[in-house]
Design brief:
homodimer; alpha+beta; Arc Repressor Mutant, subunit A; SH3 type barrels; 6-stranded antiparallel sheet; two-stranded antiparallel sheet; 41% helix; DNA-binding
Chain lengths: 221, 221
DNA sequence: AATAATTTTTAGATTAACCTAAAAAATAAA
DNA sequence: TTTATTTTTTAGGTTAATCTAAAAATTATT
């Protein structure tokens, strides 16, 4: 069935909200991410439900149907593969690619996206460490920890970020924090929950709790 | 000023029609290429004129303004660069890329298109031999002959095609006619204007006038 | 449990891009 | 130069996606 860019964006947003919770997604939550009004969302949810892509009962919130989930994952797949292309092949920085990928994710051609996947060497994650769903729409669950959740002095590897905003990514770049960076936690301060950490064996610096919350790491030792 | 996909497509179509003639473009001609009705075209032409992208007087036809020409050429540039990408990097055949490029040409990012240009090695023509406008929107005029216009037994090189339809391109592929192919004209038949020609030194075959009209060549000898 | 606050939905409009049918203008033919 | 034909425009409507304002349902608070 034909799908519009707008419908694709709604499915993508509902999918993103569903990842964070097992509860139904509220109209307001969708409205906020779609940067639109709740009334518009209500209209669209009814339409998406008619097309069979979401389960929606009025006043009860919404969730993706199996079919809707499939569509959402194919958009995520396209978005993340294009991000890899933009960084690996076009030479963009990781904080510059989100907006362009938002456009490219709507290009419709299974053949193209599978050829692109191959051309990029079947990458497992995008430049922010987010996993890329495969052709069958299966998204490997990567169980990484939030740096902010770590309670002891450990050595970790930066595997991803929980936020794609340019300001955040630029801050990480300034701190020399990129995918794969080694983090030696020296101290965790109870007072402001800031972390004193050495990055790639450099002299340790302070990282705020706010930043640590958005950094995903694998614990090495 | 903001521009919609639809507006971009109208400007592209008006540009294409303007290349073939120096006269003003008729509403009906635009309607046919846009696959829409004349009444819809009238509405859009008024809108495009208000935005300053075309010069339009009712009942007098339309032509691009300087600004409109600039926009149209930037779309053509994007379309043709993406076609090169699809063929050279993604491994598509020249008859498979038009529809995908129709989507990709609307991606908005000057940075991306200039990086893509560089990545592809600043190609001069697309996979069909059509010239690619440069960053400044200047389209090099390539003066090639239509194979059908050649009146004597000559040796030529295939430089482009005047049509991008998949059926036509697939026929050329079947005849072993690709960009750069050598054509030795053996005979031109007065009766049906068909051409008896050797392709890359193979044994000569007949090519219809209809096909020859859509083949662009450089005369070598 | 009743009331207050919040969330969500309905009702009615708006805009972009399209449509059909009819009117008007331009062009071609008698 | 009238008349006929074709082209183009106008008038009025439709659909998708949005909006504001008001009504209804849900949730939270006394």
């Amino acid at each position: 069935m034909a799908i519009s860019f707008t419908e694709e964006n709604y499915l993508k947003v509902i999918h993103r909200l569903s990842e964070a919770t097992s509860e139904d997604i509220s109209t307001n939550a969708v409205a906020e991410l779609m940067q639109t009004k709740a009334a518009s969302v209500t209209d669209m949810l009814r339409k998406l439900a008619e097309k069979g892509w979401v389960n929606y009962q009025k006043y009860q919130g919404v969730r993706l149907s199996v079919e809707g989930e499939k569509i959402a994952l194919s958009i995520v797949r396209k978005h993340r593969l294009w991000e890899v292309f933009l960084v690996d092949k076009m030479g963009f920085n990781w904080d510059e690619v989100h907006e362009i990928a938002e456009q490219l994710e709507h290009i419709e051609s299974d053949q193209l996206i599978n050829k692109l996947d191959e051309y990029l060497g079947f990458p497992k994650t995008d430049p922010h460490g987010d996993p890329i769903p495969n052709k069958e729409g299966i998204l490997p669950e990567l169980a990484y920890s939030h740096l902010s959740d770590i309670k002891a002095t450990k050595t970790c590897k930066l595997m991803g970020v929980a936020q794609d905003s340019a300001v955040f990514l630029q801050l990480l770049t300034k701190l020399n924090l990129s995918l794969g960076a080694k983090l030696d936690i020296q101290e965790i301060n109870e007072f402001d929950r800031s972390i004193f950490v050495s990055i790639n064996d450099a002299s340790p610096i302070f990282i705020s709790h706010e930043v640590a919350k958005n950094i995903l790491v694998k614990i090495l030792a």
